[in-house]
Design a protein that fits this description.
120 residues, mainly alpha
Length: 120
Amino acid sequence: MELTAEQITGNFDQILQIINNVFTGERKEKLLVMFNELSERFMLAPASSINYFHYAFPGGLCLHTLNVMRIAKKLYELWKDEGANVSDYSFETLIFCSLVHDLGKVGNELLDFYVPNDSD
C-alpha cells in the first residue's frame, strides 16, 4: 500500500482531532505537545520495519494507530452493550493505550528505533 502526502497528513490530523475530542486537561495538553513535536516522525514511520508485515510503508504507523483506536472503541462499546464490566478503566484510558502502544517506533530526535529490513 502506498499513501499520498494528503492521506498521511489527513491521518495525522485525525490523530490530533481524537486527542482534542477524547482527552482533557493536562493529559490533553501534554499529548498535543508530544504529537506536535514528533509529528513528522510519527506521520512518516512505518508500523513495521519488515516489508511484508502490517503497514510497513511510510505513514503506516499513523494509519495502524487510527485502526487500533477504531477497533478498541468498537470492542469497548460492544462489551459495554453486552453487559461486561468496563468500570475498571475509562474510555479515555483505552484510547490513550491505543494511541501510544507503538509510539517507541518513532525513535527520538536523532535515531529511528526501527531498522528497515527488505529481506527474509
